[in-house]
Amino acid sequence: MSGDFTSKEKVLKRIRKALIQKSSKEIIDVDIESDIYTASEEPLDIQFAQKFSGLNGKFIFCENEAEFIENFDFISKDHNWKNIFCLEPEIKLLLQKGNIEYSDKETDLLKTDIGLTLCECLVARTGSIIITSKQASGRRLPIYANYHVVIAYTSQLVYTLKDALKHIREKYKTQLPSMISAITGPSKTADIEKTLVQGAHGPKEVFVFLIDDTPIS
Question: Which CATH number does the domain housing residue 54 bear?
Answer without folding.
Answer: 3.40.50.10420
